[in-house]
Task: inverse folding
């Protein structure tokens, strides 16, 4: 069995006036997916404008578990329900964990940047976080065993990287990561 996670990002443009129904359908998809083996989480990226795209990101522990979900009648039913609420067919991307850091809602169907570029930009975002966060947290973690202090640091750093630092760094380097044709 593959040890890499299975991650899928699905972008939809919702028909005007059906946003509430689509949001309910999205919650239903997440609830249904959460009952499947290997489900590890999801995110919804809301559109920045009324005509923008909604993005649903589903994560499973392996690509095999993701495939089981995608091929299930339950998933197919939710897809049909969601598609009835959208303007066009969804755009679907399969990404690895680091590629998810480089997803920009304003560029929903772009192929991921080359790995060497993602490594450089990841280092740019990660360096200040790993340099300053442990010192900043030291008053809280100094009395803890080393393994627990590291766990606290990582538990704060990873969400910070995922939802704060990398979206900003990716936007900063957008022109280099996603050059115009």
Result:
């Amino acid at each position: 069995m593959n040890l890499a996670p299975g991650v899928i990002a699905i972008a939809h443009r919702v028909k005007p006036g059906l946003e509430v129904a689509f949001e309910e359908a999205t919650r239903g998809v997440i609830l249904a997916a959460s009952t499947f083996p290997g489900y590890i989480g999801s995110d919804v990226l809301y559109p920045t404008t009324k005509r923008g795209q909604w993005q649903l990101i589903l994560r499973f522990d392996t690509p095999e578990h993701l495939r089981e979900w995608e091929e299930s009648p339950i998933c197919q039913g939710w897809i049909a329900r969601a598609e009835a609420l959208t303007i066009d067919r969804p755009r679907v991307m399969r990404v690895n964990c680091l590629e998810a850091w480089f997803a920009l809602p304003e560029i929903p169907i772009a192929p991921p940047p080359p790995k060497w570029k993602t490594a450089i930009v990841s280092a740019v975002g990660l360096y200040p976080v790993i340099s300053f966060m442990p010192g900043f947290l030291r008053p809280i973690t100094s009395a803890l065993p080393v393994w627990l202090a590291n766990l606290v640091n990582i538990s704060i750093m990873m969400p910070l990287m995922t939802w704060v630092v990398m979206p900003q760094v990716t936007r900063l380097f957008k022109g280099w990561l996603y050059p115009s044709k």
Notes: The beta strands are 6-12, 39-45, 54-60, 91-95. Residues 6-101 form a domain with the Alpha-Beta Plaits fold (CATH 3.30.70.100).
